Amino acid sequence: MTAPLLDLRGLTKAYPGVIANDDVSFAIQPGEVHALLGENGAGKSTLVKMIYGLVKPDSGTMALNDAPYTPAEPRAARAQGVAMVFQHFSLFEALSVAENIALGMENPPKPRDLSARIRDVSQAYGLPLDPESLVGDLSAGERQRVEIIRCLLQDPKLLIMDEPTSVLTPQEVEILFHTLRKLSAEGTAILYISHKLEEIRALCDAATILRLGKVVGACDPKQTSAAQMAEMMVGKSLAQPGRDASDPGEVLLKATDLSLPAASAFGTPLRDISFEVRAGEILGIGGVAGNGQDELLAVLSGERATPRGAVEFNGADLATLPPEARRGIGILSAPEERLGHAAAPDMTLTENAVLTGATRKGLAKNGFISWGRARAFADEIIARFDVRTPGNHVAARALSGGNLQKYVVGREILQDPVVLVINQPTWGVDASAAADIRQALLDLAQNGAAVIVISQDLDELLEISDRFCALNEGRLSDPRPARGLSMEEIGLMLGGAHGMQEAAI
Amino acid sequence: MIIDPITLIVALITISTPVLLAALGELVVEKSGVLNLGVEGMMIMGAVCGFIVANQTGSPTLAFLAGMAGAAALSFIFAVLTQFLMSNQVATGLALTLFGLGLAALLGVGYEGQPIPDVAKPLPAALAELPVIGPILFSHDLVTYIAIASVFAIWFVLKHTRIGLILRAVGESHDAAHALGYKVVRIRILAILFGGAMAGLGGAFLSVVYVENWVQGMTAGAGWIALALVVFAAWKPGRVLFGAWLFGGIAALQLRLQAAEVGVPVALLDASPYLVTILVLVVMSSDRARAALNAPAALGKTFHASG
Asked: Is this prediction's ipTM beyond 0.90?
């Protein structure tokens, strides 16, 4: 066996109140695609931040090609051949592709040479990209290409990818995998973080599994089933959400030719959107973020003015109803952005419960808030959705992303909505909590509510929705029964790889 | 009543110089993502420091350097408060203006009406005597030429150099810049100091060259106009120059109209440069979508490195 490219021994990092990494050791071979698996909060992000020089370990050593490796900052890591593609893109929207790439390089060539090199590399790896276009105008898949090319221009020996496929269409995932396999064949090692187990089985040569900051196992993903890996991650077997078949009732919410101009320079206009949801039905809307999801939710929740006659609830026009009145008649919504949109960051959980629950739960009378009831409602959400928090007096900001997600989703579900519109219900939530949320949505539909689930997670949509449609560049495809749809068909509904073909290699 | 267009243009360029300098400095500060509302306070510090040193040493060069240093020192207080102690930029900037005005008044006690040396013109007098273009192009002070050269220099640096790209990146998304390993706080502090020095140079020009006297509160809102110019000029140096000249032009024109005793209330004439400049710039920047594209996305947001 050859010497490992990167050897981690006993890495430990503690933050106040939590040990993010506890004695983590494993090794990555040259040219290997190595998966790092684990639930939210398992310590994956902290670990890669240490490798990339953003965080210093408290103890433990790293060795790169048998030499001690202690990057003080990302610059040092890049200089030694370690590159990283971030989960939340580290791109600048108002700058061009070439400018963004230049910012990530130590000694960028002249702008003209750089553009030429970007074109060369993007051709060689099948990642078409125009160096002059503004990043703000690009799709999520194209933005990721910018990040990848930024890394590739520096000939990395180790490429770290943090949840790279969460924003891609199936076709874009195929292109990405093709690129990664080519890189791996050329000897570049890849550290691949994801919790999409089927992808890991398709792509990776080895896997290390983290739970609560500790390495709990290693496996060969090609020999291990997804269920086995999931059990190692969670430490117990997962219950599959399910429900009894039922016939949908009458149409509750109906949109007809709904169009709306974009709200900002980087927003997406809605174009002729038509759909209907029936009582007891879950309508799944798939698509890559930034294709009108936020705008659609804003129109349905009443945040943005609805054009006259475009959206009907029980046959009545919704156009003139503001958000609070819509909540009153049972149209509830949970937006994607948890901090600052679904919840006010510096207010307590109780106060946040009052913000949307006041009308339907009777938390306020004649303008006076009933704190007793508000606290009881907050406690109910916390108990029912297993929100890990010291109590209802804690500021929303203090909760981890997954926990706050459970709270804001639970807050809407427990208000007995007639129609629930929810964007990314399980974004950033770990596997077992995600299963709970999905089950709650299924129960809601079972009890006669109409549910619209907007999500990028196609597996999730196929699992819970009755009908599926795709939102692409502000247009909604015709809904199709979710049962029996293949990934191939969904990919085509999502607009393929955004009109970009893989370049001939 | 006849107004000579040539002297009007010469006066316009002189009057606009302090505002132009301060606005260019603030443009760089805001491009790095920091909103410093203390421009007025920094300008008046520059004015008083410049005047005192001119009076004490008799050297205009030292006076300008002292003006820049005084205002930069004041801006360093802002930098420490907002970048290290993470105080609110709006509140800190407003406090800086009040503090600067008060401190300048204190330092300047006894200097009103004191003599200072004349500032020599950089170009030979023969050039300035050429008809028409002579006074317009060749009769100005060195600082005025520096201000106009700065317009092009700042445009070039922001657009075509790596340091400019990094500065814009920090102002666009400090988190992304930090993730790439750039020193957000250090870059912002340098930008704030640069903005302070530019405002100070503008203030010193006002007291040492243009008014040739120290008067309490003599900047009279020029710092605020500089702030407004930056926003309405959509953070573009060329438009800042246009806005500053517009402001200077109306100011020079209304002085002449006042002297000619036109039948318009003096208060209205006094206010006209501020009114007209803001109105024109508002109309120019009315295309919100395009203006937003150029605005630094992280403007005024506190950066805290975590994780």
From this structure: no
